[in-house]
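To close the section, here is one more complete example, presented without commentary so you can practise reading it yourself. The ligand is fe (ii) ion.
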Amino acid sequence: MTTPFDYSRIPALPPSVYVAPLKRPAGLGDDWLERAQRRYSADEHRIWDDLYERQIALMPGHACREFLHGLERLDLGRGGVPDFNEISEELGGLTGWSVVPVPMLIPDHVFYYHLANRRFPAGNFIRTREEFEYIKEPDVFHDVFGHVPLLTDPVFANYMEAYGRAGWKALKYNRLKALSALYWYTVEFGLILEDDQLRIYGAGILSGPTETVFSTEGASPNRIHLNVDRVMRTDYTISDLQATYFVIESFRELFHLTEQRGFEPIYESLAPGFQYAKTAALDTDHIYHRGTQEYELRGGRGSGAKPV
Ligand SMILES: [Fe+2]
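Output:
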């Protein structure tokens, strides 16, 4: 049974639901949207170009076909930070999505509201040279290079909208963390099988320099077939390489696994925290590769361990 939600309005935040205490900058409305995309300096445009050049070289043999196709269609390497109006126009014609500027990470319920209405919120700033290798907050490069190309794919575009709509139910059941894990292991760090080869569709991998090889070829991480119930119970790593990657066979599979589910039975049976450690490989998993977890066991990023 489905609950009729009004997806055209920002969902109410039930009093018991915890969201990060983000402070909305002055002058922004409840939707957290900036009135316009900021104007970037020549130096900032060059940072985009340099990031683009580095990432594009890593794409062949790693990024999935739909992502590469989207990159090409949107011509994100035309020089400098892309104009959101131009991208939105092209994207709108393909799948009805647009890209809208936000100042920083926005609260979950506002994020769901935009996704449910086919708007992708993208950071209205770009990292500095000092942050070239790694940034904490998703900037315009992560958001546009990493996420937007796949929004040209009709099935993936539908998945993102369905994900946004699922947010209403997660709020109702106070299970935001579970739904976040699904986003993390699909939209940010997902792998897909393409003619029996592992390819990447997760924006968190595709927009950074170190994880493309580690995620698809590294001995350390587990690679397990995606099971939505399992993923929603699994902890994840926020600021380091993942200990486990989940693999799908197609975007159609991903869409059906989530869209056709009510999620109610999951939310009703889920404890508030995570049940499985991020390194876990279960008897019930369909495992493609059981990781050695060497990178994780050596202490990860802070320890200087090699991502192998
Ligand atoms: Fe992201």
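Once you have examined the tokens, check your reading against these statements. Strands lie at 98-102, 119-123, 191-194, 197-200, 222-225, 244-248, 287-289. The chain has one domain: 42-303.
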